[in-house]
Design a protein that fits this description.
Elements (H helix, E strand, L loop, with lengths): L2 H15 L3 H8 L7 H15 L4 H15 L3 E3 L6 E5 L2 E8 L3 E13 L3 H17 L3 E7 L4 E11 L7 H41 L3
Antiparallel strand pairs: 1-2, 2-3, 3-4, 4-6, 5-6
Length: 208
């Protein structure tokens, strides 16, 4: 295959990836005006989209997986979130448009705003975790309670033809605990270094 042909196929692939079902079906309605290779790619993309379950079917799949994990769950009828307990932590899964699963582990850590040193350690540790871990860690300040709350989140694009969701979701949930471990460990190390530095400073200031 020539470089020009490869470039053309890549441009077709990028174009087709942006098309919805209606556009794909419309293209197939005019087979005489498209290259056979283009139509094959269109058909493959349409088959791929058709194999992705709708929102209700996705809920059923997620519920079944949680049951297989042995995780009791509850469905919030207002926002559609599926709440469950995994390894002692509370999680919520939201099914977004475009077949995305958005996972949240809300407020798993709390630090008082009165402890400025601990707050600074927390923020630094979150930055470190976000650079090392495939889940995102965020924080929110509650002025009324004078506390800072930490949450973690991650998204999955459900592609049944690409991966096993049960196995992949399990791996992603473990990533949340990886983020927890990084943050807790980094904060402990920072506190120890600070205490060690303060001890050295005191020794330096002591008279002979």
């Amino acid at each position: 295959m020539s470089n020009n042909s490869k470039s053309l196929l890549k441009s077709w692939e990028a174009e087709i990836a942006k098309m919805g079902k209606d556009e794909l079906q419309y293209a197939l309605s005019f087979p005489d005006i498209y290259y056979p290779e283009y139509l094959e790619m269109v058909k493959a993309r349409l088959d791929e989209l058709s194999s992705v379950p709708d929102n209700e079917a996705m809920k059923a799949i997620v519920k079944k997986i949680l049951e297989e994990y042995g995780c009791p769950y509850e469905v919030n009828e207002k926002n559609g979130g599926i709440s469950f307990m995994f390894r002692g932590m509370n999680f919520v899964i939201f099914l977004e448009s475009g077949h995305f699963l958005e996972i949240w582990n809300y407020e798993w850590k709390k630090v008082s705003l009165d402890d400025d040193d601990e707050v600074q350690r927390l923020i630094k540790a979150i930055n470190i975790a976000n650079g090392k871990c495939p889940v995102s860690t965020v924080y929110e300040i509650d002025e009324e309670e004078q506390a800072i709350y930490v949450s973690c989140t991650a998204s999955i694009l459900y592609q049944p033809m690409v991966f096993n969701l049960k196995q992949y979701l399990y791996t992603r949930l473990l990533n949340f605990f990886f983020a927890h471990d990084i943050i807790n460990a980094e904060m402990t190390l920072m506190a120890e270094r600070e205490a060690s530095q303060q001890g050295r400073n005191i020794n330096v200031k002591q008279p002979n």
